[in-house]
Amino acid sequence: MADYPHPSTFDNELTDEKLTYIAKLMLQSFDKSFRDTRDQDDDNYTFGTVFFKRTHNCFLREFRSNLCPFRIQILDKTNKFIFKVGQTPCRFFEEKNYYYPTKKGAFVLNDQLSLFSDIGLPYYSNFLLMYSLDEDGFPLATVRFVSYDINENIVSYWEYNSSSFTPSISTNDLYTPDSNNQKRARNLSSKRKTADKSNEN
Asked: Region Disordered: start and end of each range (predicted)?
């Protein structure tokens, strides 16, 4: 991976403390959403919908709270959901590839009140939840904060992974791939749809 500048290079209010605070909220939503969408009738879409709405509601509650440790301004409280950290408008998504995000909203031209519109300077800034399963079937999640210029090229990068995060739930509630509750871990591979079609034939 290229050595991209820290986000604070362009906005000094994008500190590790603020970014970590937001990343932890996303990881909490991920943990609950992942555990709650392992039924045989759940799929990636089910998870994505649950995760997005839970994170959306969590951000609304936390950012409006008097107990929020930082001043984070909500610019759009709808499902578009844009919030401002320092001088930087941000969005959030569950994503598979931060180099080439697939979510339509990642590069929506809404003028995002961006500080910069020049090539090589941040224009779009997104918190991206990315995850995979390890060899034992346990989920490994990372939150990446990535800014792109107007040409959709990465100009700054920061990440926080689940190895630094401890879920605020009891051990008995944690996901275990060998549990006998007839729930399953979902295959996150892009080959999932192909496999599903093969099983239908």
From this structure: 175-201
